[in-house]
Amino acid sequence: MPLTNRRKYRTSTTLAVLIVLPILISSYYYFCFVNNFWLTELFFRSPSTQERGRFYASLFKWVLGIALFFINYISLGKIQKRLQIIITSLELFLLLALFMATFQLSLPFIAAKVGYLITQGAFTTLYVSAISIVLAFCIALVTAIARLSSNGVAVGIATFYTSFFRGIPLLIQIFILYMGLPQLGFVINPIPAGITALSLCYGAYMSEVFRAGIQSIPHGQWEASRALGLHKSKIMRLVILPQALKIIIPPTGNHFIAMLKDSSLVSVVGVWELTYVASTVGNREFRNMEMLITAAAIYWIMSILLEIIQGRIERSYSPAAR
Amino acid sequence: MQDAVKYAITLENVNKWYGKHHVLKDINLSIKDKEKVVICGPSGSGKSTMIRCINGLEEHQEGKIVVGNVELCDELKSLDQIRGDAGMVFQSFNLFPHMTVLENCTLGPIHVRGMKRAKAEELAMSLISRVNIRDQAHKYPGQLSGGQQQRVAIARALCMQPKIMLFDEPTSALDPEMVKEVLDTMIELTDLGMTMICVTHEMGFAKQVADRVIFMDNGSIIESGTPVEMFEAPKTDRLKLFLSQILHH
């Protein structure tokens, strides 16, 4: 039965679903997993039927689970699309939380350490990533334009740069920069080294996205601009790039979110960013899972923030170019 | 005001190849100042390529093209000078979708001629009114019909105050009702006294407006003459065949 949006949705049905569904789901959870003595009563009558009893109990839970799944799916089909999305997201989140609960994490420990994780770890991650993002964007723009220029030297430099920095693992780039630059006479602190490596690496990846965006603009735009007598630099700035940006933004947002995680690699040169802080605190007190899961949650929240910002930027570009 | 330069376009023994394909073969053509020329011919005859060579959008390999007093060559400066004086209208409009109609028209004057914004907008509004789309000045190209978009394109080219207007099949992408409105606009423009070169299949327009009609086929100019001469008394068989195909449509 398709989840169509074109029908009129009755408030009574929506209310019914919103009330009944949580009750059903929580009852299922409670009676099948929390308080399942009645299952024992039903299936484990005598010690000799243990094996079969276990099998039937498990089968019973599965059958109920599948029935619940279908009831869920069908009743979600009866409500508005927006509500469907919200409730499905909540249900998936609930499943994730249940899975996490099986780890039996110590919540007081998390509560004690999360402040430190955020103020030291997340803060460092955020500002390292933010600066790298801005630098990578500028590098990518310049490189993409250089790659498309008629000047052979510019093309050569740009191609070499993208090939090198996409070809070598980021970790090795960080090492090479941190340990190599002092040999040339530049003694550099860990954080600037990390930022430089991140910017150069992601600049290379993003320059290809920029190049694709610029090349996707129809030739007619170039011709019309040239026919008006505009210089190439003005054509880029006034005509091509504004249109290309609309295409470039989603993949770039992708790269930013990835960079947030890759910033964890700069910990190898001694930057106290989130993953490093989480794993050292966890290791010290033998509570690895708590710290790593907390760090994961913090990363997720930061990524969601970036996604929201990306959505805003995308929307601000759409009304103009209709 | 600029002194009256005797603007003429001269093509001498122009040859152009696209790889191995010989697309323009020994073109010799002279166009007088203020003359209105229509170029017609079957697809692939090199008509569009020829006018794009005049504008510098395409490069010719052999021969000489002189626009005004300036010969077209590879140097950047000479090309910019030509492009300022030759406005072009394309078959696929090529408007800038992220800018309003007004911004499309003021882009050239502001960034090429260095005009102040207020003056450029005044000029643009006068030309936008002249092509009868005054009410759409603040809309985006995506919100306009094909005929309106092409008229914006014409206004945009006119804002550069060119001495020559080049039209590359301006009505070929439009449906019949819009063809009329664009052709009417172009006919009104003939009063402005510019040199006009128009590649088109609209024979009625040619008869009404053109001083000279040129027929091209397979990269060469087959025949040229006044509209009456060309349509009533075609000399070559190729032209006779072409006309019979068009007129029996």
Description:
- The complex is a heterodimer of chains A (322) and B (249).
- Chain A contains 12 helices and no strands.
- Chain A is mainly alpha-helical and 322 residues long.
- Chain A is flat, with a radius of gyration of 27 Å.
- Chain B contains 9 helices and 10 strands.
- In chain B, α3 (101-111) crosses α4, α3 (101-111) packs parallel to α5 and α5 (146-158) runs parallel beside α6 (176-189).
- The N and C termini of chain B lie far apart (47 Å).
- Classes of the chains: A mainly alpha (322), B alpha/beta (249).
- Chains A and B meet through α9 and α10 of A and α2, β6, α3 and α5 of B.
Query: What is the gyration radius of chain B calculated from CA atoms?
Result: 18 Å
Please, what is the oligomeric state? heterodimer
Question: Biggest β-sheet of chain B, characterized?
Answer: 6 strands, mixed
- Strand portion of chain B, in percent? 15-25%
Low-confidence stretches of chain B: 1-5
Estimated structural class of chain A: mainly alpha
Major interchain interface with per-chain residue totals = A-B, 19 and 28 residues
Q: Specify the helix fraction band of chain B.
A: 25-40%
Overall pLDDT confidence of chain A: 86
Secondary-structure-based class of chain B equals alpha/beta
- What strand order characterises the main sheet of chain B? 6-7-8-3-9-10
Give the amount of beta strand of chain A, in percent.
under 5%
Instruction: List SSEs of chain B in N-to-C order.
Output: EEEHEEHEHHHEHEHEEHH
Low-pLDDT ranges of chain A: none
Q: What's the overall average pLDDT of chain B, rounded? A: 87
Largest sheet of chain A: none
Q: For the record, give the distance between the C-alpha atoms at the N and C termini of chain B, rounded to a whole number.
A: 47 Å
Helix content of chain A: over 70%
| Helix run count of chain B | 9
